[in-house]
Each structure stands twice: as structure tokens, then as C-alpha cells.
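Ticket #4471: structure export looks truncated?
Reporter: QA, pipeline team
Priority: medium

Steps to reproduce: submit the single chain below to the structure queue and open the exported record.
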Amino acid sequence: MAVLNLERWGIGIGDGQPLLVIAGLNVLENETLALDTASHLQRVCTDLGLPYIFKASFDKANRSSITSYRGPGLAEGLRILAKVKAEFGVPIASDIHEIAQAEPLAQVVDLLQIPAFLCRQTDLEVASARAIHAAGGLLHVKKGQFLAPWDARNIVAKVKEAVGGADITVLCERGASFGYNNLVVDMLGIGEMMKLGVPVTIDATHAVQLPGADPRTGGASTGGRRDGVAVIAKAAVAAGVDGVFLEFHPDPDKALCDGPSTLPLDAAAGLLSTLKAVHAAVQPA
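Actual output as written to the record:
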């Protein structure tokens, strides 16, 4: 498997590289929270010697209810993300939802992320791949809840063709639909995706979702099993993933999106320390 690089940041992801940490907020709520969260997570990752990318969404376009909080929008979201990037000197990850967003996002974002529900949208993948490749970044594609691991080869092929054969794809496992309102993670599927010759990450936050099943809102939002995040993250690192995707909040029960799946910010140091140790233990001698 080739190692992919964010060259301007000195970050590599893949065989023989340190465990990549993609972590931050589910959605941008305000500038202060974004800065405080980035500061804390950067400090933790620096102390552990782990490469770090700050993640936050400017829009959550797939909320269960039309009344749910979505985020500040593209313009304000990019302003906040650019400030985080400038103030802390960290690369940025965020989601894309529409083709027209590709160019402006690529001016700020280093790891452009295609949400799981959109992973088969060819025009979106092509536009995203071309924009982020031209800017020197990488494309992070979440495997859909409806997609077999080996069928992600079509995602890799689309992206590669769009950018003239360049390798820029990082695949992300985030669970598969298992009946109604439930997700499971097939740890054997991680190895199947790695056979495609690309780095693979685990989105342990969204893998513990209970889609459309938050009892607090009568199904108007997604529930989750917060205690399962660490379990899935540790198991996936043991299975060989190259990076972890985690979402935090100082007070998860007050988070404006996906609180039941979000970890408290003060849990970051302990969990990432454990994940680093697991990653070291499973590396080839």
C-alpha cells in the first residue's frame, strides 16, 4: 500500500506511519468552541507524538429533522476553520455536500471528506477529487452504510481516473446498516478495504450511531452509544487501520448534533494514548 502524504504538513498516512488522528467537533457551533477544542486536541496529540488534523463540519446536510441544527454555513464555517488553521498551524478536515462547494473548500481544507450517504455520487467525487488534488490535499471518503467493503474499489477507481491516476483516496469505515436504527462494524471489512491499496481510517464516532433513534427527540435525531466509541476505535486499530476519526465536545449532552455519540473532550488524552499503544503493538516487527 502506498503511503499518502500531506506534504505541506509533513504528515504521512499508511504503512509504517504513525497513527493519524482526525478529531474535533461534529459541527461548528461557534468560533470560541472551535478554537478551544483545537487547542486541547493539538496539545494532546503533540504530547503523544501523533499527527493531528482538526475536523469540524460547517453544515450537517443530512439531519433527521428539518428543525435540527445544521451549522453556520459555508462562508462562516470556512472563516472559522481558516482561523483555527492559522492560529494553531494544523491541517483541516471538513465535509462537502454539493459540487459548487469543492473549489472554496479546497482553499481551506486539507482533507476533504465525502459523507457516507454521498459516496456513490460520481459528479461530487470527481469535482471534490480534482479540487483537493489541485490544492495539494487528500480525499477522505466514508464507505456508505449500504456498501460492501470490496465494492469500495469503485470509489477508488473513480477518484483515480478523475485526477489522472494520482493516489489521493483515504477510505473510512463507519459501520454498516444492521436492521433498523442500528449499525455494526465488520472488523474483517477493514482488511478488505486495505487490499485496495489505500489507507483506511475508522470513524468510531459515527459507527456507534443509532440512526433516527434518539429517545430524547422521539426519533427526530440520531441516537448513539457513547460508551462504544473506545471499544470500536481500539478494535479497529488492532485490525490495522491507519487513522482514527473521533468527535469531542466539552459537554457532549449539550452538543448541537450527535451528542449521544460524542466523547467528552477530557477523555481525549487517555483514549489516544491507548490507541497509540495498540497501534504500536500490531505493527510488523
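Status: closed, not a bug. The export was complete when the record was re-opened. Leaving a note from the reviewer for reference: The chain has one domain: 4-282.
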